[in-house]
């Protein structure tokens, strides 16, 4: 039993020795100061000194903790760093700086007293990346100081951080997210508290994709802290999860055969047969769009092939429906539903009414083709190709309008012209509609919090996120589309 105690005692002794070697180092002559080492000195009245620090990569934090033993001072920084505040009013020390870009930074300490010498000690801390299963030992060289860590998380990731203090009697763990702070025309950085604990064990779940900062703060004592991190990735960020709905689209599609079996489809006239096939392909198309939106929300890498599959399925659906509608318009005769007489469609009149009328589907031809080209643009965009979006959507609207007019001009001249007129108006307005859609799902959207009314605002610095309005609009479109497909399938069954 006694032998078992030697190992933890030896490890503890090594930690204490390492702390002594790291935190007792005092120097100002090195070219660059280093993280986790104490630097000390004294300044005459109104004197100053500058220290050079090598800045880490962007998104890191540079933390400076200064302890003035005598006198008063002013502290300034320069370089690719910005001072970052926190939303905790009492959090006055240490100084927090957000690193905008790597490079060289300068720290200037100035004695503001005119008749006394300033004696000081300080150390800097640079955020250390944390990963799943990683254990890191960092010093907190002064009481009240901070050791900082950074995590890059996906939405829904669950994190457990365990802090084991060595020489520190009391500490706290705090998680922060990064915001822009806009106040009276100025732009700065703010760390907003996300979660905090006092017992050394922190559990939290990421609400959005992005960076999360963990600050371990010594409330009493100085020494070292051993950080162990465990990350449980969200199931929703896994590729396999978003493939499941595609498999479920098979039984969902077969469910429509309860209304219109495949044998019945084969017996239908060619126009209705192709329209029925478009109904079948609409089901996996809708489900693949749902998978694409979900995978993008949780940044599952499969969202790119899902978008491309959705575009192909939607193109197939539009092609089937458009081809069926064109075949219907190529028919030369039709039976009057009132008297049963065979009517020449060049006349298209019997019993005082039109034998065939222009269906609602033809009014949707222009937006359907425009949407197809919009999806083609999105699929090319994620592959770093960038054709002119506005030209594509206008062209899609014009193509749909001309097709609608051309294949309906025999049945109803004025109705066909009305289709053309409405379609061209849509084509002219399509750039505005597209820009509105981009604004809805666009790349600059960030969660915004208003603070003290509208005079202050905090904008979360995170990857693009689809807003709630998109999901509401998307759900509404899906519900309307499914309802329309059910009604159309029943109508085909009834009139076959």
Structural notes for this entry:
By secondary structure, the protein is an alpha+beta fold. The chain contains ten helices and 21 strands. The strands form four sheets. Strands 1, 3, 5, 6, 8, 9, 10, 11, 12, 13, 14, 15, 20 and 21 form a 14-stranded mixed β-sheet that branches. The chain has a three-stranded antiparallel β-sheet with strand order 2-7-4, with no helix packed on it. Strand 16 (333-335) and strand 17 (342-344) form a beta hairpin. The model is unreliable at 1-29 (pLDDT under 50).
Q: What value does the Rg take, in angstroms? A: 34 Å
Distance separating the two termini: 87 Å
Number of helices: 10
Number of strands: 21
Give the biggest sheet: 14 strands, mixed
Task: Classify the secondary structure makeup into a structural class.
Answer: alpha+beta
- What's the rounded overall pLDDT mean? 81
Gross morphology: elongated
Low-confidence stretches: 1-29
The proportion of strand residues reads 25-35%
- The helix content, as a percent range, equals 40-55%
Features:
40% helix, 496 residues, 3-stranded antiparallel β-sheet, alpha+beta, 21 strands
Quick structural overview:
This protein is α+β, with helices and mostly antiparallel strands and 496 residues long.
Topology record:
Elements: H1 2-23, E1 39-43, E2 48-55, E3 61-70, E4 73-78, E5 81-86, E6 95-99, E7 103-111, E8 118-126, E9 128-129, E10 135-140, E11 146-153, E12 158-183, E13 186-197, E14 201-205, E15 210-232, H2 239-255, H3 262-267, H4 270-297, H5 303-330, E16 333-335, E17 342-344, E18 349-350, E19 353-354, H6 360-363, H7 365-381, H8 389-408, H9 413-441, E20 448-451, E21 456-460, H10 468-495
Helix pairs in contact: 2-4, 4-5, 4-10, 5-7, 7-8, 7-9, 8-9
């Amino acid at each position: 039993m006694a032998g078992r105690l030697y190992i933890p005692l030896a490890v503890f002794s090594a930690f204490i020795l390492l702390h002594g070697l790291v935190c007792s180092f005092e120097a100002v002559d090195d070219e660059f100061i280093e993280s986790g080492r104490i630097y000390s000195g004294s300044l005459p009245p109104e004197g100053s000194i500058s220290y050079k620090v090598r800045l880490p990569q962007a998104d890191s934090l540079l933390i400076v903790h200064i302890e003035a033993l005598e006198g008063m001072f002013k502290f300034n920084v320069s370089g690719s760093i910005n001072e970052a505040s926190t939303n905790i009013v009492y959090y006055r020390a240490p100084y927090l700086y957000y690193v905008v870009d790597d490079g060289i930074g300068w720290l200037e300490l100035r004695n503001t007293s005119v008749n006394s010498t300033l004696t000081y000690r300080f150390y800097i801390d640079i955020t250390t990346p944390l990963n799943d299963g990683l254990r890191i030992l960092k010093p907190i060289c002064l009481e009240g100081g901070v050791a900082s860590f950074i995590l890059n998380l996906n939405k829904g990731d669950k994190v457990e951080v365990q802090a084991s203090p060595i020489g520190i009697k009391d500490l706290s763990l705090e998680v922060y997210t990064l915001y822009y702070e806009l106040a009276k025309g100025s732009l700065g950085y703010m760390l907003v508290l996300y979660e905090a604990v006092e017992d050394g064990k922190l559990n939290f779940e990421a609400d959005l994709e992005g960076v999360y900062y963990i600050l371990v703060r010594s409330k009493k004592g100085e020494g070292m802290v051993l950080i162990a991190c465990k990350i449980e990735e969200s199931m929703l960020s896994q590729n396999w999860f978003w493939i499941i709905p595609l498999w479920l689209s098979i039984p969902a599609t077969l469910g429509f055969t309860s209304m219109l079996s495949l044998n019945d489809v084969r017996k239908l006239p060619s126009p209705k047969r192709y329209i029925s096939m478009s109904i079948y392909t609409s089901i996996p198309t809708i489900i693949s769009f749902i998978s694409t939106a979900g995978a993008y929300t949780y940044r599952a890498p499969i969202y790119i092939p899902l978008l491309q599959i959705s575009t192909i399925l939607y193109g197939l659906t539009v092609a089937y429906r458009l081809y069926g509608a064109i075949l219907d318009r190529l028919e030369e005769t039709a039976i009057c539903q009132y008297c049963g007489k065979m009517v020449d469609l060049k006349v298209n009149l019997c019993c005082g009414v039109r034998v065939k009328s222009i269906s609602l589907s033809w009014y949707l031809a222009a937006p359907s083709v425009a949407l197809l080209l919009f999806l083609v643009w999105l699929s090319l965009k994620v592959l770093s190709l960038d054709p002119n979006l506005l030209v594509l959507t206008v062209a899609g609207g014009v193509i749909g309008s001309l097709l609608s007019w051309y294949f309906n001009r025999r049945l109803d001249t004025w109705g066909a012209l009305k289709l053309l007129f409405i379609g061209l108006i849509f084509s002219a307005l399509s750039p505005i509609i597209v820009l509105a859609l981009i604004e809805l799902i666009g790349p600059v959207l960030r969660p915004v919090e208003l603070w003290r009314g509208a005079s202050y605002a905090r904008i979360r610095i995170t990857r693009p996120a689809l807003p709630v309005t998109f999901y509401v609009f998307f759900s509404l479109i899906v519900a309307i589309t499914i309802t329309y497909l059910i009604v159309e399938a029943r109508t085909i069954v009834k009139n076959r």
